[in-house]
Amino acid sequence: MVSLSKGEVVATLGGHTEGESIEAIEFVELTGSASSGPGVVVTGATDGKALIWDLSTMRLRATLQHEVGIYFCSTVRAQSNYDYFAASRTL
Fold this sequence. Notes:
About 0% of the residues lie in helices and about 45% in strands. It has about 90 residues and is mainly beta.
């Protein structure tokens, strides 16, 4: 993660298999929740993992394992306080 205001790397998010590439990234604001932080980021890679990172702590919150690589991800704001996450290997 790079801070645009500082112009420097502020964190490195690991977790994907070495040699595999990150193909998808989605930033999600957690508005309407008890959290007032910057939200989460979801990364998807050719290793089939979708990793959900807490941007306020830079810690991994969850790992979702898929059978195939992830090349696209998106969140959809629901009417409830939940976001739904989808990942796909197709474009």
